[in-house]
Design brief:
With 154 residues, this protein is mainly beta. It has one domain (2-153): Porin, CATH 2.40.160. The protein has one helix spanning 2-21, and strands at 24-37, 44-54, 56-59, 62-73, 76-88, 93-104, 113-123, 128-137, 141-153.
């Protein structure tokens, strides 16, 4: 019950911010990552992610891009909430960096796990972009790996 209420709250807040800002998009892609739990081994797996994002233009050279992603890696499902700084390197290239909070659906302690993400984004057009980033886990459940995806802006 706690998890359902929490997820409903997160989705509601994200939807209101998307409507208030007006610039949003959908994204999907593949992840090439490992999930390592303290005291247990890890293995590399391929999975997928899908979700939504919005952008907040804080200045001409700094954009904040929060995302809400459903991620599946080798049967482990979790919600990832990256909050990324998006810094332009020309007309179509952007650097991405920031923390992401991960909420594992099958984790009994119901805590967020923190990752640090860094990557690049390239705009193919005004409505389509490609992104690649590395996520580095910092906790008792670590998700480390590459996330490569395509985004569609509306």
């Amino acid at each position: 019950m706690k998890k359902t209420t929490f997820l409903f709250l997160i989705l509601t807040i994200f939807c209101f911010s998307v409507n208030a800002q007006g610039k949003w998009g959908l994204k999907a892609g593949a992840d090439f990552a490992t999930i390592k739990v303290s005291g247990f081994g890890s293995s590399s797996e391929t999975g997928f992610f899908l979700g939504a994002y919005t952008t907040f233009n804080l200045s001409d050279s700094f954009v904040l891009q929060p995302e809400l992603l459903y991620v599946n890696i080798d049967g482990s499902d979790f919600l990832s909430i990256p909050v990324l700084a998006k810094i332009p390197f020309g007309d179509k290239f952007y650097g991405l960096a920031g923390p992401s909070l991960n909420y594992f659906f099958d984790d009994m302690d119901e805590d967020f796990k923190i990752n640090l993400d860094a990557g690049l984004q390239y705009d193919l057009s005004q409505s389509v972009d490609l992104s690649a980033r590395y996520s580095f886990g910092l906790g008792d459940i670590d998700v480390n790996g590459f996330f490569v995806g395509i985004g569609f802006k509306f």
